[in-house]
Amino acid sequence: MDLHGKTILVTGAARRLGRSIALELGAAGASLVIHHHASAAEAESACAALQRLGVRAHPVQADLSSAEGIASLFEGVDRLGDLHALVNSAAVMVPGDLLKVTQADWDDTLNLNLKAAFFVLQQAALRLRRCGGGVIVNIADIAGLRPWPRFPVHSISKAGLLALTQVAALALAPDIRVNAVVPGPVLKPGAMKVERWETLGQSLPLRRTGTPSDVARAVRFLMENDFVTGEALLVDGGNQFAPV
Predict the structure, then answer these.
(1) Which residues contact 185 (CB under 8 A, 6 or more apart)?
(2) Domain locations in the chain?
(3) 181 φ, ψ to 5°?
(4) Which of 71, 100, 158, 239 would give a disulfide with 144, using CB separation of 3.0 to 4.6 Å?
(5) Which CATH number fits domain 7-234: 3.40.50.300, 3.40.50.720, 3.90.25.10, 1.10.1240.10?
(6) pLDDT value at position 189?
(7) Rounded to an integer, what distance in angstroms lies between the CA atom of residue 154 and that of residue 40?
(8) 0.85 exceeded by the pTM?
(9) With b meaning 16 or more CB within 10 Å and e meaning fewer, what string describes 230-240?
(10) Cβ distance 101 to 153 under 8 Å?
């Protein structure tokens, strides 16, 4: 798909990885819908950065963990006209002990990382079909392929997102392509010490960590290549081969 002039919704786009993805797609000439939950100032900043690139950008606030929030999101999207693509990026990552996970812990993560991704995809696909088709890219995680015991619910949610990608790719073909990007260590968690982050990078086959732009460029590739669907593209520095 030629991204120039297309309208793309990126969830969780105000900060961190989602913002980098939005800026990369804006650099390709796309107009962006910048979804955020509680990051209004960051969303406005992202929109301003995109507008400096010469493309349209609009912030839309919504809590995606509820059906009402998803309906609100698409009310905002619909006011902006046709939708041509979606990046499902909004997520949370909370550590926990498997034997101490509560139902509230489960719901908090699954409601955003998987349930919201499913229903946002569903609503976006209905709109893409009205425009003759489009592209969806889900942002998964290496934890969905190599489970992390310290992040049990997160790992489960991202494994589910990879399954959703494959199911949707089959169900929505041929007019809508659905793929996933599977990042490895590309953005240091706020609480992680720099020394630990550097050690993690040295443990990878490429001997370094990645950057958000590595993931953003992978998203752009999957948007633009019209003969790729149902793919999970790993951007992990060889993390899948590193010792556990």
Answers:
(1) 197, 200, 201, 204, 209, 210, 236, 237, 239
(2) 7-234
(3) -105, 135
(4) 158
(5) 3.40.50.720
(6) 83
(7) 25
(8) yes
(9) ebbbbbbbebe
(10) yes
